[in-house]
Amino acid sequence: TGVTSDMRISREEVFGPVMCIAKVSDDDDDKCVEMVNACDFGLGSSVYSANQDRAMRIGGRIKSGMFTANDFGANYLIQSLPFGGVKESGF
After folding, report:
1. Main-chain phi, psi angles of 49, to 5 degrees
2. Can you list the positions of beta strands (E) in 9-78?
């Protein structure tokens, strides 16, 4: 927790069992999407929220190749699903 946009781990593609948690001031969805989309990479994203509809709205605005709401494994553990990224994570 406590990851900030100036930290290397928040700006690079990380492969491994790592979850970066960054707090968004004022619980602001627009600030959240802006922070996430500022990253040069976009392989996959996951949004966790007590409100499933909110998670889906936020996820629909994130520039990544794959998205899950309140889940991680669906995109990565089911190899028959399409797999790919955007930006520096793309083909």
Report:
1. -155, 150
2. 41-42, 44-47, 66-69
